[in-house]
């Protein structure tokens, strides 16, 4: 790296407890000895970094040094020593913004307006300085302290890039699935508007507690995003003001050239005239949905969006909304910085492990589809923990609860019926789903009617939900 190797960090700073950990780095609280001021030190093990990783580290440090704004976590020092690089940031102690919201006694549309205003201020500062963040999401929105009214701070510029003016170019596939813009998914040239798309997704979540685009299948999720297929369903959106919806529509405009900019968004009436435009009504339903959204984000899942799926989603579609294995996130919060759906095998051992995982996964799905609980338990860890939405989003340990589903699901739907003396036969396909907000609904998806006189089946397709 360009920075001269020295021992300045250990001379000037004292390290304390660990605050967080990544693949090649750890974050620890530290104190500058000369002033007693506390900071957060991101310590990167440079011995494990490739030449490309070193370039990324230099870029991150260069970008962070450039950005000085009250709504951005500030870099105060960048020091390289033998085998390690230290980035010294503001010590932010308030935790994630979304976690703070669900702990509040009162949360309104006006509060959401204030939150997104601070996010837009940080994004606008980035864009004015030729920086595109590329990974705006709840995990990167922190609070300066635990005090009421603490400032929102934008963090993590690991995927940020430098652009010239309104430059549009292909900078690679990067971001987090649910927050990716249509132009990135289409692999078209992109620039600052990708951050505004992500702001639109965040604002949508701030208002109702669930995202505008979601699907457990990443391909279908991407299709939704590219089509801009979102809406404002009742009843939760009925109490949101038209101005708030208008701002979301301007942020989630498919054409990046027509998408609202950060500077323009800050002048939107719902932002700059908050006291008279935004509703002050407490949004309890939003808080409840946001709690479940946060729980899904926090689930520790060892799945990666970089890994190709060994089987098609349709292999277990009929159980997807029914079975209690919701340890899979609706969309991963892990950022992408390479082409999606590719598998990287570094050595033969990794390849063997991959094949073993595929084989066991296929056996697991076969056991589920056949309703074979005995085969299922032989594959699963008896102390496994699952996310069970029907138990109000609780984490359930063990397989006893799973037994209920095996014993009560009609796995085989080819039951014979005697139609010799039947005048009318109806075949009804009914399934139960759980929407993102946590409310269950029964959906009558198809009705087949057969008359004894005509011997013909007539099919109807309609929605009946409860």
Automatic annotation (TrEMBL):
ATP binds at residue 42. InterPro entries: Ca/CaM-dep_prot_kinase-assoc, Kinase-like_dom_sf, NTF2-like_dom_sf, Prot_kinase_dom, Protein_kinase_ATP_BS, Ser/Thr_kinase_AS. Residues 13-271 form the Protein kinase domain. It catalyses: L-threonyl-[protein] + ATP = O-phospho-L-threonyl-[protein] + ADP + H(+); L-seryl-[protein] + ATP = O-phospho-L-seryl-[protein] + ADP + H(+). It is an enzyme of class 2 (transferase). Gene3D superfamilies: 3.10.450.50, 6.10.140.620, Phosphorylase Kinase, domain 1 (3.30.200.20), Transferase(Phosphotransferase) domain 1 (1.10.510.10). CDD domains: STKc_CaMKII. One of its GO terms (molecular function) is ATP binding. Keywords: ATP-binding, Calmodulin-binding, Kinase, Nucleotide-binding, Phosphoprotein, Serine/threonine-protein kinase, Transferase. The keyword ATP-binding applies. Its EC number is 2.7.11.17. PANTHER family: SERINE/THREONINE-PROTEIN KINASE. Belongs to the protein kinase superfamily. CAMK Ser/Thr protein kinase family. CaMK subfamily. This is calcium/calmodulin-dependent protein kinase. It comes from Astyanax mexicanus (Blind cave fish). The lineage of its organism: Eukaryota, Metazoa, Chordata, Craniata, Vertebrata.
């Amino acid at each position: 790296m360009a920075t001269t190797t020295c021992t300045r960090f250990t001379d000037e700073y004292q390290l304390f407890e660990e605050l967080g950990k990544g693949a090649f780095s750890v974050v620890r609280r530290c104190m500058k000895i000369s002033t007693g001021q506390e900071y957060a030190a991101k310590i990167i093990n440079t011995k494990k970094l490739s030449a490309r990783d070193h370039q990324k580290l230099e870029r991150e440090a260069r970008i962070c040094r450039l950005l000085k704004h009250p709504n951005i976590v500030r870099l105060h020092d960048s020091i390289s020593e033998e085998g390690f690089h230290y980035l010294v940031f503001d010590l932010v102690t308030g935790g994630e913004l979304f976690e703070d919201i669900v702990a509040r006694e009162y949360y309104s549309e006006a509060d959401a307006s204030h939150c997104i205003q601070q996010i837009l201020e940080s994004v606008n500062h980035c864009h004015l300085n030729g920086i595109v963040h590329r990974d705006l999401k709840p995990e990167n929105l922190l609070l300066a302290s635990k005090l009421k009214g603490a400032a929102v701070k934008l963090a993590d510029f690991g995927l940020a890039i430098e652009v010239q003016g309104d430059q549009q170019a292909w900078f690679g596939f990067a971001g987090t699935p649910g927050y990716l813009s249509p132009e990135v998914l289409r692999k078209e040239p992109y620039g600052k508007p990708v951050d505004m798309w992500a702001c639109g997704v965040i604002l949508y979540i701030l208002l109702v507690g669930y995202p505008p685009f979601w699907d457990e299948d990443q391909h279908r999720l991407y299709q939704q995003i590219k089509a801009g297929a979102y809406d404002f369903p009742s009843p939760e959106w009925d109490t949101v003001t038209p101005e708030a919806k208008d701002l979301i529509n301007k942020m989630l405009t498919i054409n990046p050239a027509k998408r609202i900019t950060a500077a323009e968004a800050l002048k939107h009436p719902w932002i700059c005239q908050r006291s008279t435009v935004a509703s002050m009504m407490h949004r309890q339903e939003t808080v409840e949905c946001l709690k479940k959204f946060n729980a899904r984000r926090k689930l520790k899942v060892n799945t990666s969006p970089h890994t190709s799926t060994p089987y098609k989603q349709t292999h277990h579609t009929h159980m997807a909304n029914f079975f209690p294995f919701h340890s899979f996130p609706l969309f991963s919060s892990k950022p992408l910085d390479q082409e999606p759906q590719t598998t990287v095998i570094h050595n033969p051992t990794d390849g063997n492990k991959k094949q073993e995982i595929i084989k066991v996964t296929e056996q697991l799905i076969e056991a589920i589809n056949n309703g074979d609980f005995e085969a299922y338990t032989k594959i699963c860890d008896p102390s496994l923990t699952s996310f069970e939405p029907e138990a109000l989003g609780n984490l359930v340990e063990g397989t006893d609860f799973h037994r209920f589903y095996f014993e009560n699901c009609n796995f085989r739907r080819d039951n014979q019926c005697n139609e010799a003396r039947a005048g009318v036969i109806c075949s009804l396909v009914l399934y139960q789903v759980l929407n993102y907000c946590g409310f269950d609904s029964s959906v009558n998806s198809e009705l087949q009617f057969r008359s004894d006189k005509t011997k013909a089946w007539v099919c109807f397709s309609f929605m009946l939900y409860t």
